[in-house]
Amino acid sequence: MSQESTGDPPIQIPKPNISQNPTHKVLYSTETVTLHCKVPKGASELQYDWYKDSAKLEPDHQSSINVRDGGIYECMAKNGSSESEKSDSYTVTLQALPEAKVQSDWTEAFPGEKVSLQCVIPESENWTYMWFRGSEPIVSSDETSIKDNTLTLSVKSSHGGEYTCQAELKDRTVKTAKSESYPLTVHDNTPKPDIRKDQWFDPFYTGEKVQLDCNMAGDGWKYDWYKDSETLITDPTYIIHSASPSNTGGYHCTAKRGDFSVDSETLQVRVQALPEAKVQSDWTEAFLGEKVSLQCVIRETENWTYMWFKGSDKIDHSDETSIKDNTLTLSVKSSHGGEYTCQAELKDRTVKTAKSKSYPLTVHDKTPKPDIRKDQWFDPFYTGEKIQLDCNMAGDGWKYDWYKDSETLITDPTYIIHSTSPSDTGVYHCKAKRGDFSVDSETLQVRVQALPEAQVKSDWTEAFPGEKVSLQCVIRETENWTYMWFKGSDKIDHSDETSIKDNTLTLSVKSSHGGEYTCQAKLKDRTVKTAKSESHPLTVHGSKPTVVLKQDPSYQEIYTGEEVKLTCSIEQKTSNWEYKWQKDSEKVNGHTYTISNATLDHNGEYTCTITRREMTYTKSTKLNIREPPRPKLSINSQWKTFYPNEKVTLKCSIDGDSSKWGYEWFKDGPQLSGDKDISFSGNTLTIRSANAIHSGQYTCRGKHHTRTPVTTRQAEALKLDIHDKTPKPDIRKDQWFEPFYTGEKIQLGCYMPGDGWMYDWYKDSETLITDPTYIIHSTSPSDTGVYHCKAKRGDFSVDSETLQVRVQALPEAQVKSDWTEAFPGEKVSLQCVIRETENWTYMWFKGSDKIDHSDETSIKDNTLTLSVKSSHGGEYTCQAKLKDRTVKTAKSKSHPLTVHGSKPTVVFKQDPSYQEIYTGEEVKLTCSIEQKTSNWEYKWQKDSEKVNGHTYTISNATLDHNGEYTCTITRREMTYTKSTTLNIREPPRPTLSIDSQWKTFYPNEKVTLKCSIDGDSSKWGYEWFRNGTRLSGDEDISFSSNKLSIRSAKASHSRQYTCRGKHLKRTPVTTRQAEALKLHIHVDTPKPHIRKYHWFDFFYTEEKVQLGCNMSGDGWEYHWYKGSKLLISNPNHTINSASLSDTGVYHCTAKRADFSVNSESLQVQVGARPPAVLSLETELSDIMSGNILTLRCNVSDGRQWSYAWFENKQRLNGSSDMCKVTATEETIKSEFKCQGIRTERPLYSALSEGFTANNIILKRKILLAISGCVVCCIVFMIIGCLVLRITRKPEGKETVPEDLFFSMADSKKQTASPLEEYMDNSPTEMEVCEEKEDLLTDHVSDVHVDDVIKDEDSPAAEANGLTSFKGL
């Protein structure tokens, strides 16, 4: 320390300390810091010096200084010459202000949402925050809440814009710059979520899939689904995999984001059960040939298609089985009998109804004729008698028409003539009709008259061979006659040619059948015979009738619009023929067919049919109708276009005899007439001097001279083009050059548009030749000059433009080059120089040998480039030739070239030498020369990148390094290159998959994930990741090779999984991660869904029970159990015909791999059908009147029933509970059964026990007869006994009991009745009574032992327990 010269004693100043105000941990560059230099013990009158980074600051000697820069500060206190020590250093650190940043998940929002933005500062001091939208500061309010560093917006449409924030330290002047702006888009309106339907139908049917999707613009939305007011799931998609009617309702979704939510529109989903198909028809039985229609009826009106089945076989559309819409129409064949069902399917959907209930159709193999019955039939009938005829046909729906001969009488099942007369004589038959189908009965001859003479009757007196002629032998009486026929005196026997039926002789006429015919009648079983009838003549023509056809007019071709008549006649003299003309489906009666106005539609074949009875002859003719021939219009010259003043001639031509036609001409539509320029002659039109006004569309038509209404169509229009101006001929040059060289060929052509031109050629003013082409085969300079041509046609000519031709001598060729020697592999260039600049090609020669272009000797333009070989040394010359011309120069003077030894050898190396380099690896390429040589320059090149030096190094390979690398070595002009290809690719990306068919799993299932890398997978190890974090094994998860196994899956295992490969040898090489796979493990394991089709609380026997089992997901097998017994392995279990043994508890098991789940159990209850009871309820009057059995069927379960009856298993008509059967030999042996039927379940009852009548009718009649006799005997006996008792009463005997009546049963039990005792006491007087009693006893005994009585005493033995004699 120093001391001043004053001599004052020095002052001891303590070491000062530096303090800071304010004392913040962090100081920012914008702040000012105050440092204080404090001396302990409060020394006064001190001055202070301050130092920064050891450098003294400018003195102001204050104890405090304001600091704006960071550094190391020190201070020293002074008083006069006394100084303290420097204080300890004090470091001031100032740091740059942190940047504020707006962070948020929100970039867009809808009005009403709450959006949060955070202002983030990396420092943790006590900051306050300011917010701005655009340049406007934001004040905290209900809509814009600011808390700490967070701005919360209750969004309105005005809130859209750019947001920034700024932070300020509390109690300090530190303020950050504004953050970068953060955009927020606010939508004007809040749209409703878009609810989408995949394959939408209204309605859906049971079992269909319904898929609804909910979508809202923007990110971060969650979606809740509702049915009516019931919450369903939270997911963007709601799927009903198998719809049922319970799924019907209004569906909507709610999009939620934060506290904000928006409801979609409501979507109505309607699901209904599949409708039932039902077969409806009026037909239950049919005959062959009838048309039967069955309809498949569905109550719904959608677009159904229909399938038909007979039994289990599907019916296809054919000529016999027509299917249109819902109707099956059968053209009935015997094979069509059976049970029919139908099934409906919705178009373009998988909806299919169950098959309908079967509908039976019985087809009779043979079509019987109607049964015509006669009531009280006599033959003959006499005047005034009643005749009744009945017609009957098996089946329902028949109507009956009655005919007498060919006359229609009435429509009724019965035809009655209440009082006959001779006019009723005739042949009767009936016809049964049903729809379009009809069947004739046999004919029935009715005759009402006295015994007549035999008489031959017939309309036939002449006939042609082949006709059928009928002759009748008519008798006035109606007895049962037989008939004989005679030709001349010879009797006619029945044969194929002479058919005799009843009183009719039918001749299949032959030429030998001409002659006189007589007949004779004889009553069957009687000797009555008529005399022969008068003879009936029959003439037989020699051959069949000759049909003659005529056409008027008889032209071979008829033109459209003309009239034509066709006439049909028979050449022979004959009568009673009917004439009919036919073309296609049109028919006209009569001899003549007239066409008033022929058209092309009348073309074709016309057939005349002549008919007499069954004999028909036809003859056809063809009518050829065509339109009149269409003229052809042409120009009568070689050329088709014309120039002003040329003559034009048009010709109208008609094929054939043109002299038959006149002609009319038309221009642009209207008909033409002659004028000063246009004239007509025959079929030509002439324009004497053409002008442009004559241009236009011309046509013509022909008009027939003799067939006046006939005119042709107009000819196809011809456009006549008359040019306004006459062009000059076009002079053309073939291979034109400027100049030509000596010896070349010059060819000039002259062309004028149009045809018929001739051309003259001129050089200067000299005429050369007349030809379209002028050729100079070998030019010389004397051919230089001016050329032109002249085009001539008729009297008309035009000159072309002139053409200058220049011819000169050939130039000389010369070789030029800087090369006189080279090394093999170098490229040497020689040029062939011509003073002219035309398009020359060049030929090169080495010695006398021509050099061809090759890889070693390249010739381009006038340059020969040699890729030098040792053989290339020698003398070179060239020659030039003009391209596409025959001009060739003389050879040039020779040029020498010397070639040295061999070329250098270039060597490549790659390190490492793998065929493929993976990205990230290092690789080096080296280029060198094998021989010892020097002064070479090396250059590597890939694409546009060039590197000098031997070695090319790639430190970190990328895909951009793929490609070809070329090393170039150069010495002087000699350059050698060699290339190699570097193949760089990314390590293969693994593929992650689930090692099973199914992709979703349930708790406790085993899950295996497989990580696959194409190629040799043994080179790779594998790493596994879940939700981004690398996985390690635990009690549930294990790894093996490229597989990850979860031994027992849990919901917690549901995550995003991925994997990657790591090369086992090339250590830095790892693959990219595989595409993430989301593994979904359900929280709960659902039970399989067991489905019931057409389900009832209980089923009746023979009904179909169908169960289905379904488990969500793939890969399931299904096993069905009844109780614990395994039934089948199938998704569906069907009992086609239920029985009582099928009652039980059913369930199914869904199984995949080692995992299985049982469904809920389902109770199936099968009950017996209600029994049908068949009883015999035959009245006594029925038995006595007509051997009729009355059967009754009853199902007594309280329901309304109709009934079906069966005889020997064949169903009978009717649906009543009563069935009356007439006892015949067949019916008493038949078995009868019945069954209840109805339209609701149960559709039918059980079949009743069978009933067989046997001989019950006969037995009961015998029983009644015997019973009657017994009753009569008893009555007579009682009366006799009473008389005896009154007249002779014995003495000393007991009084006879008052009750003398006893039963038949008592008669057998008693040893002696009172009556017997009475009669025993009077043997003489009571003899007759005893005899009668014996008779009675015998009868009573007979009643009890007779078989008939035995049958009746035990009716169950024969009549199956049925009761009889109702009312007795």
Automatic annotation (TrEMBL):
Highest taxon in the source lineage: Eukaryota
GO molecular function: transmembrane signaling receptor activity
Pfam families: Ig_2 (PF13895), Ig_3 (PF13927)
UniProt-listed InterPro entries: Ig-like_dom, Ig-like_dom_sf, Ig-like_fold, Ig_Fc_receptor, Ig_sub, Ig_sub2
Ranges for region Disordered: 1-22
Domain Ig-like: 16-93, 98-175, 193-272, 275-352, 370-449, 452-529, 545-624, 631-711, 729-808, 811-888, 904-983, 990-1070, 1088-1165, 1171-1235
UniProt keywords, alphabetically: Disulfide bond, Membrane, Signal, Transmembrane, Transmembrane helix
SUPFAM superfamilies, per the entry: Immunoglobulin
Protein name according to UniProt: Ig-like domain-containing protein
